[in-house]
Amino acid sequence: MRRASALLCVSVALLGCNKSESPTSPSVITPPAPAAAIHYTAIGASDANGVGSSVPCLPFTACENGTGYVPVAARQLRAAHEVTVMNLGIPASVLSPAVEAIARQIGREVTGNFIDRQMPFVPTNSTVVTISGGVNDANAIGEAIEKGAAAAGVAQYIETQARAFGADYDRLIQGVRNRARNSFLVVLNVPNLAAMPYAARYPLEHRRVLQSVSVAFSREANRQAATGVVVMDVMCDSTLYAPSNFSRDGFHPNDTGYANIAARLAAIINGAPSVPAATCAAMTAVPPG
Questions:
Q1: Which among 11, 49, 200, 216 is most buried, taking Cβ atoms within 10 Å?
Q2: Is there a contact between 88 and 122 (Cβ–Cβ < 8 Å)?
Q3: Calpha distance 86→60 (Å, rounded)
Q4: At how many degrees (to 10) do helices 97-105 and 154-179 cross?
């Protein structure tokens, strides 16, 4: 947490700064051509900075020797491409402005949201953009429920928040497309937080809530495939949940975990197909009540 706070200080100094409606018409951009130069922009939170790895990266730096998924994927892509990197990831940020407001109301540490703090800075010459978001959002909603936000019913509250999250995802994708019209977009959906090691300390009911929120948010991320982006399925990736792939906090990946993500991501950018599963065992890792 101290490392994330240090990264946050740098980011602040530098920046100074029914289902949701259907997204805009699909505009499929193909992966970069073999040997084509790649201008890679990453949108995300602490995972984009490699927090939990042996060499985390400060926001807005290329961090060539980093061991998070962004620099590792960039190094793998350099086997066939010239690659430049803009890493917009900011620790403790959320994707959704709506969730940011909820997080602040319950006193949760949050540094902003992707739409307001990252999307406006996507370079217009980006040819690849990756988006990894929703994990901090899911934790915030889980904590809000624990503090009584779902007085009208937990299931209804989760669905309302998921639809708002999906609408904000639509806005984010459209905003990226408006700035970098020729970018190949890859969205990482949301893993089941309840199946990650850090969640083992929570009571069973809270883990069930985290699972429900994670699955609902992952559904909204998957829906972005209809807009012409490629979705990388981390929800249904069984290797992601192995304790050996996590840092000591049980939440952030370690070097091995980030390397696994980077390898899959680089393969997709190089043209490997990727279709998220409609259902899998990870979605029900915690038995229902």
A1: 49
A2: yes
A3: 6
A4: 130
Tens of pLDDT, residue by residue over 137-151, are 999 999 999 999 999
3-state SS of the chain is CHHHHHHHHHHHHHHCCCCCCCCCCCCCCCCCCCCCCEEEEEEECCCCCCCCCCCCCCCCCCCCCCCCHHHHHHHHHCCCCCEEEEECCCCCCECCHHHHHHHHHCCCCCCCEHHHHCHHHCCCCCCEEEEECCHHHHHHHHHHHHCCCCCCCHHHHHHHHHHHHHHHHHHHHHHHHHHCCCCEEEEECCCCHHHCHHHHHCCHHHHHHHHHHHHHHHHHHHHHHHHCCEEECCCCCHHHHCHHHECCCCCCECHHHHHHHHHHHHHHHCCCCCCCCCCCHHHHCCCCC
Using one digit for the tens of pLDDT, what is the confidence trace for 59-101? 998 899 999 999 999 999 999 999 999 999 999 999 999 999 9
- The pTM for the full model equals 0.90
The structure tokens listed for 216 are 């609902």
Q: Are 115 and 97 in contact (CB under 8 A)?
A: yes
d(Cα 226, Cα 44) in Å, to the nearest integer? 21
| Measured distance CA(116)–CA(137) in Å, rounded | 15
| Residues 246 and 52: beta-carbon distance below 8 Å | yes
| CB proximity list for 148: less than 8 A, separation 6 or greater | none
Residue written as tokens 């490699």? 50
Return the amino acid letter for 252. Answer: H
